[in-house]
Fold each of these.
Amino acid sequence: MTIGLRYWSNLIFSAPEDKPIPPQLIFYLRDASSLIFSTSLSVAIRMMTRWNKIEAEKREAIKNRTEAELKNLRNQLNPHFLLNTLNNIYALIAFDTDKAQQAVQELSKLLRYVLYENQQMYVPLNKEIDFIQNYIELMRIRVSEQVHIETIFHIKPESQTPIAPLIFISLIENAFKHGISPIKQSFIRITITEHEHEINCMICNSNHPKAEIDKSGSGIGLEQVHKRLELTYPGCYKWERYLSDDGKIYNSNITIKITNPTIKQLL
C-alpha cells in the first residue's frame, strides 16, 4: 500500500501530463514483486511443512492400525488352530491310544512354533516349511491308508526369505477337512515353491464337502487368510480358488510377490 501511495503521489504532483512515467515505477514494481514472491514462498513452505506433518501422522496411524489388526488376527488364529488340532487328537484317542500319544508329542512341537514364532511379523521361509511339514506329519497319523498325501517343497536351502507366519496353514487345514472321506479314495497334494521374489503355494485335494450340520472351523481360517493377505501383502498377492467341472477336485493357489520394498518392510 505504501509503495502504491508513493507512486500515486509522484505521478499526480510531480510529473506533467506530457512527461513519461518516471523510471522510479520500475523499482516500485520490482519491490512489490519481490515482496509478493517472498510472502507467497513463505506461505507455501509453511503449508508444505504442515501437509508433510499431517501425512506423516496419517501414515503412522495407518501403520499402527494395521499392526493392531494383524496382531488381533494372529491371536484369533492360535486358539482356532489349537482347537482343530485337539479335535483331531480326541478322535484318535477313541481307537488308537499309541497314535494319540504320538500326536500329543507332535502337537508340542507345533505349539512351540505357534506360541513364539507367530508373535513376529515375519519368519524365515525355511522355518515356516518345517512347521508345515510337522503339521502334515501330525495329520498323517489320523488318516487311513486310502488317503494319499503328497508334499512337494522347492525352496532354497535354509531359505531366509521372509514370510508371514502361518499364512498357509488354514489352506492346509481346509484341505484335510474337505479333502478326506472315510469311505472313498482321497488325496491331498501340497506344493510350495520359491522363485526369485515370489512364493507360490498350490493345494489340490479331492472334494468331500462336510454336512451342513458340521460347523467345525466355520470358515474362520480362510476368512483370516484373506484379511492377513490384504493387510500384509496389499497388491502383491494373487489367490485363486476353484472346483473342477465335475466338482470332485478343489484347488487353492496363492502367489505372493516378495518385492524389494516389501522385503524392506519385512526386515
Amino acid sequence: MDIRVCFILVLEALLAAALLWRCGALRTRAQWCVGLAVIVLGFALRALVLDHETLDYQNFLSPWVTFYRENGGFRALWRPVGNYNIPYLYFMALFSYSSIRDLYLIKCLSILFDVLLAWGSAELLGVFCESAWRKLGCFACVLLLPTVILNGAFWGQCDSIYVALAVLALWLGLKDRPVAAMICLALSFGFKLQAIFVMPVFALLLLRGKLKWFHLAVFPAAYVLLVLPCVLLGRPFLDTVLLYANQTGSVGSALNYNSSSIFGIFWHVANEEAAATTAIAASAFYMLLVLIAASLFRDRLSDRAILCAAVLFAVGIPFFLPHMHDRYFFAADILTVVLAFALPWTFPAAPLTQFASLLGYHAYIYMRFFLPMRYGSWSLIAVLVLTAAAFARELYTSGGTKRNTAAL
C-alpha cells in the first residue's frame, strides 16, 4: 500500500479520536482506552480490504476518474459522465490530479465519511441521552458495523456520505439549528437521491416548530450553490439541477435488485408494471400514514418519536418501493443503531436490519444468495412492527415532549 495512503488513514483515525472527544464520549481513562481501541480496530479492518476491487469500481468509478484525467480534470465537469450527481463527480475530478491510485482515494473518501457518520450518530444520540458510555457505544457500533465497513472500504461505494449528512441534518434540526440542518439535508440529497428515504422526517420538525416554512427555502438555495460550479463550467443549468429526474430510468426495470423489500417476498408477479405502480402507491400511502399520525398527536411529538419516525421512513419507504438495490437500506442500518441506544428495548431492530442488508451485500459480493431474500424482508417487517410500537408509545405517552434526555 502507498505510504501516502497510510498517512491519509492515520489522519482520518486522528480525526475520529478528536470528534469522539468533542461529542463528550471520552471523559475517563477507561473511555479513552476503549475509544482508541475501537478506532484502531475499525481502521485495521478497513486497511485489510482496501486493495479489493469490485466490478463497480472496475466498470464505473475508475473509468470516471480516468475520463477526468484525460480531459482536463475539473474543466471536463460540464460533460455528462456516469449516473452519479455532480457533488460526487467533483471528487472524481479532484482525484484525477493525484498520482495516488484512484482505488485508494475513492475508498479513503468513503472512510472519511464513515468517521463523520459515526460521530454524527453519537451526536444524534446525545439529543436523547447524556451518557458518555452510550455515545461511545453508538460511535463504536456504527464505525464497526459490517455494512459500513463493506460499503466503503471493501466495495468503494459512497452511501456513508449522504447518510452521514442526513444524520447530521436530523441532529441539527433537533438541536434548533434549522439553517444548518437544511444545508446538510441539501448536501445529502446532492450526493444521493436515496436521501429522500429520510427527508419526510423533516415535516415532523415543522410540526414541532423546530423548522419554519421559510427555512425550507435554504434547501433549494444550497442545492443550486452545490451544483453551480459545474454550471459555470458550461453544463446546462436545467440539466444539472434536474439530473435525478432525467435519470429515473437508470435504476433498472426489475422489481428487486438483491434488496430485502416487499419484492423479496413477492419475487414473481404476473404483471411487473402493475406491481411497480401499486408498490409506489403503497409507499406513498405508508409515508402519509406516519405523517398523519404525527400530525394528530403533534402535542406529544417528542424527539424520540421523531427518531422513531425517521426509522419508519428509512425502513418502510424503500421496503415498499420497487427497483430497490442491495444498499438502499443503509440509512436504516444506521438509524436503528441510534434508536437501540436511545430506546434500548428496541434493540432487536438493529441486528434485524443489519441481517436484511447483509443478505443483499452477500448476493452482490459472492454472486449467489446466502438465504432467499424473503428472510430479509420478513426481518424488516419485524423492524417496522417494533418501531411502530415505539412510535405509538411515544405519541400516546403524556408529556412526551418533556422526556428527551436520559442517563445510563
Amino acid sequence: MFPIRRIKKNEGPVLKQNETDTADGGRLEYLTFPSLEETGIVKHLFTTRLGGVSEGELSTMNLSFTRGDLECRVAENYRRIGRVLGCRPEDMTASHQTHTTNIRRVTAADKGKGITRLRDYENIDGLITDEPGIMLVTYFADCVPLFFVDTVHRAVGLAHSGWRGTAAGMGGCMVKAMQEAYETKPEDLLVAIGPSICADCYEVGEDTAQYFCELPQGGVMEDSKFSGVVRPGKQPGKYQLDLWEANRQKLLAAGVKRERIAVADICTCCNADYLFSHRASGGRRGNMGAFLGLK
C-alpha cells in the first residue's frame, strides 16, 4: 500500500485505503469512507493516481478526457474503476464542472453522459439521484469532494466544491436540492468531505480571502460568514484558507448533524505522488474521480 501523509495526527483515519489487482499485473488503489460503507446501501470510492494506464504527468489513473490524454486510455481507466464498483462506464453519469452551485437530478436517461456519450447539459457541479444502478461521477485535483447519503429516503448526492463553490454554499445547496427532490431531512444525511488541499498548503490572496472573512483592520482579523477558516499567511497580503472547515460549517448551518459529517484526513497537495494536485504540479496533472451510487 502506498504510504500517505495524514493530517489528523491524533485521530483514527476517516478514510480507508483499498487495493485490487489489475489485469496487467498492477495494483489499483482507491479510498473509501467507512461511514458510508456501513450504511450498506451505496457503492462509492475516490480514486488515487495508481492503477490506470495513462502516462507521463497524467500517470496513471487519469479520468479526464480534456487533459490531453488518449481517449482509449481514459476509457480503460473507467473500465477498471467500474470493475471495482460492479458497474459499467455506461452506467456512470458525469458532472460538467465550472465552479457553480448548479445541481442536476440524474435519472436512468442520463446514464453514460460525459463518459460514453455526450452530455446535453453544462455548468453542473452537483449531481443527485434516488435511482439504483446509476453511478454519479465528479472530478478533482485539489477542490473539495462532497458525498451525501440519505439513509431514510435512499438518495445520494455528489458535489464539487472549490473556493467559489464553498463560499457560495455548495453544501447547503445540495441539502436543499435533496430536500426538494426527495423530501430528505438534513438530520438524516451522512456527509463526507473528501481528499482535497489542506489549510497549510492552500495559500490565497486578499481577493479570495475576502469571501470568507473581514480582512484585518488595525491588525485584527474578524470573521464574517465563516469562523476560523482563514489565518494570516507567511507573507503580507497572503492567507491560509481551510476549505474543509468552511464546508463543514456550511453543512452544519444547513442542518446536518455534526456527528454525521466525516472530514477527510488526507491532503492532495501533501500527497502529490499519490493524488493529483493542481497546485503541487503547477497545473500539469490528470483528474481524480469521486464515485457514488445506490446499490
Amino acid sequence: MFTSVMGLIVADNKKITLGELTGPRALSAVPFAGRYRIVDFMLSNMVNTGIKNVGVLTYNKYKSLMDHLGTGAPWSLDRKNDGLHILPPYVNSEATSVVGDEELAGIIDFLRTSRTTYVVVASSNVVLNTNFDEFIKAHQESGADISVMYNRDSNKCGSPCFILDTDEDDFIVDMLYNPERSTSNKCSLGIILLRRDLMIDIISRMMAHGDSHFGIHSFVKMYDEYRVRGFEYKGTALRINSVQTYFNASMALLDGSVRDNLFWSGESVYTKIKDEAPTLYFESSQVANSIVSDGCRIYGNVENSIIFRGVTVSKNTTVKNCVIMQSAHISENCHLENVILDKNAFVRPGVRLIGHPNYPVVIGKGAGI
C-alpha cells in the first residue's frame, strides 16, 4: 500500500453523453449496479490503495454528485487533513481570463496543497475493481515519466477510444483516436500516473499557452517529449461511453463471473449508505436471473434485470432485460423489455415499451409515461 500518492477523478467527459441519463447529472453520478454510482468504483480503488487525498474534478451538473459524495465519510475520506475535495471549475488568482472552462486553475491549486510524490488521475467512464499498488510499483521500476493503464479490449471500447501502440518495453510510440483500423489491441482505460511536480509543470505550461481544458489523454500524447509507458490491466473492466455501453455493462453484471470480479475480488466497493427495509416478494411475483436491491415491492414478473432501491413492479406486469432505477413505479398490466427507466419515473397502467438490446428505450428522471 502506497501513501505518497494523491488521486484525481475527472467526474465528467465532454465527449460522452448518455442522453436522458446525463441530462440531470454528471457522468460519474449515473446510478449503476442497483445501489452504486459510477464514481464509487474508481473512488474505492483509490481508497483501497491507501490514497487519502482525492480530488473530484467537475464541469457542470454536479449537484447530484455532491449530494452523493457528501463529506466522503463512506470512503473514510472525511478527514481534518487531506480527504475528499470537490473541484468545480472556477477562476483563481492565476487564471488569465474568464473565457471558457477554467478547470486547470482549480487543479493546480489542489496539486500544490499536497506533499505527495505521485498523482493517479482517472476518468469516470470505466468500472473496475482493483488497487493501484502494482501499477505504482511498475511505474517506479520502469523509470517512466508517465504511465497509462490499458487492457486488450479494443473491440469493445466504443467511442471515444484511444488505442496505444507500444514498443517491446511497453513504452508508447503512438496513440490513435477512434481508428477504423489498428495494428494494436491495447485500449487505454483512462488512468494515468505521474509525479505531482511534473503534473504541476505541465499544467502551468498549458495555462501559459492559453489552454483551459483538462484531458487525461493530453498527457499520454506527450510520448515524444516524455517517457510514457503502458501498464496492462487484466481484470474485468466495463467501459461506459454511450447509452448502449451503459446498458451492456449493466446486463453484464448478470454474468456470475463478471459480478464476482467486480464485487468479490478481494477489494471492497464503498458507496453512500441508504437504509431500506428488505424487498417484499408477493405470491404473484416471479423473479429470475436479476439483481434486486432492498426496499422494493415486487408483485409482477422480473427477468434478466437490474432493479434499484425502492422500485415497485405491480401485478400482471413483466420487466425483462431492463434497468429500473431508484423509486421508479411500474403500474399493473405493463410490459417493459430492453428499457432503462431512470429515477422516480412512473409507468402508467397498460403501457408496453419494447426496445432492442442495441437500442434500449430510455425514460428520463421523474418522467411519466
